[in-house]
Amino acid sequence: MEMNISQLLRDPVGSTRDYQIDDVIDITDDGKSHKIQGKCNLMRLHNSVLVKCALNTEVELTCSRCLNKYRHPLKIKFEEEFMPTVDAITGASLPEPEEPGAFTIDEQHILDLTEAVRQYSVMNIPIKALCKKDCAGICPTCGKNLNEGKCDCPEDNTDPRWSKLAELK
After folding, report:
1. How far apart are CA 120 and CA 126, in angstroms?
2. Residue 26 phi, psi dihedral angles, 5° rounding
3. Could you tell me the pLDDT band of residue 96, with boundaries at 50, 70 and 90?
4. Given a cut of 80, is residue 121 above it in pLDDT?
């Protein structure tokens, strides 16, 4: 997800470039490649480049109720500022960005979106992954996937120590 933006860095402030993204990268650090597609707009600012992206991908997740694996679509939108490390006109080194972890453009004027896409992808993965909204989960007794039908376990498996509370109804 690298793009050479040397010409954009030489253009006047306010200049823009649009890029179609169709790439494959490892966004979850699990060794699996994920197809990323979408659009990015780059705008030349006074001391940086503003990147606006709207991307789509999907990741394989494990449902937190039924424990089945499923494909979850991700819509990734972000706006980030990328700071050059070298002046495109003079070739002189520029000072390091004050903000730690800021995105930079390397010495050859290559803007690499990989880390930004990875970070925003991880932020968009749901905390509680569900294969579908009404996932029934698994039976806590026998472990059968209740999305595939009922199990043969008795319905009332209340702990007998709580039986006195049932009498209060």
Report:
1. 12
2. -90, 105
3. confident
4. yes
pTM: 0.79
Q: Are 2 and 25 in contact (CB under 8 A)?
A: no
**Three-state secondary structure call for residue 12:** coil
Residue 29 clears pLDDT 80, i.e. is over it: no
In sequence order, which residues have a C-beta less than 8 Å from that of residue 161 and are 6 or more positions away?
A: none
pLDDT recorded at residue 169: 67
What CA–CA distance (Å, rounded) separates 8 from 61?
39
Q: Is the dihedral of CA 121, 124, 129, 132 positive or negative?
A: negative
Strands 2-4 and 69-84: unpaired
Helix (H) / strand (E) containing 166: helix 163-166
Write phi, then psi, for 121 (nearest 5 degrees).
-65, -45
Band of the pLDDT at 88, cuts 50, 70, 90?
Answer: confident
**Residue 144 CB partners (closer than 8 Å, separation 6+):** 138, 151
- pLDDT of 91 reads 79
Mean pLDDT of the chain: 90
CB neighbours of residue 110 within 10 Å: 12
At residue 104, what is the residue type? T
